[in-house]
Design goal:
The chain has 273 residues and is an alpha/beta fold. Helices cover 32% and strands 22% of the residues. The radius of gyration is 23 Å and the shape is globular.
Amino acid sequence: MPRDTLSPDTITPPFFRHCNVKKDQRIKDLRARINALERPSWTREKGLFSLGIPEIDCQLPAGGFLPSALYEIIANRPIDAGAATGFCITLLAALLDYRKGRILWCLNNNATDAGEIYPLGLVQYGLDLSNLTIVKTTRDTDVLWAMEEALRSDTFTAVLGEVKEINMTASRRLQLAAEENNTLTLLLRPATETLGPSAAIQRWRIKTVPSHPRGFAAILNEPGSACWKAKLFRSRGGTPGTWSMEWCDETDHLALAAPVCDRPDRPQNTNVT
């Protein structure tokens, strides 16, 4: 039989094939041990919450979001400040589905370009205004002070603060306070090209993408639901990733945005009376 017609199994002695299998298994076991060491202890904790998107949960180290940690949400561009704010709101609403409580929101007019809070929009995204406390300031130092005081007060289930700049020491203080007091802590930051180190367990960049109206919105040529591209570019013990997601009015939750080729066409009956 000519050599070029032989399969690898035919020309490889059984002994070497067996050795390769053992070597591959040892490498696999070693990688699993390294991953276990790199993952923080909180990956085994319970009480996680979710955005309801399994594709995201499976890449998070604990299989969901930890309600006692610091997360950093950053607008990809100045015009994406509203999208980054919306992503924070959906995280807060998702947490409240699992654990009721009060929320502190520290506004900083000099930090983001998202504008003023629109109460009806918060309600649409699932927040109860009666459980929301708002603090307004114009300095990062005041926001960070208010956040840390709130975290140590045992009053709030979640704390959100808008800051333009934060150093490693300040973020570490927030992360420790979030862990000690079992409080979700979100940092909402404006678009920036240079990011310093952070103690946040996850860092996200949020970008606005064109919406795709469906149903009567398509018939009436109205904009569709909010649609974002969320990039998890740092995840302690997890796997970075990028997802396109949109708000679903039918379920009042986020969902992965369907590829354009899979979206339903404009309804056939376009007669509106």
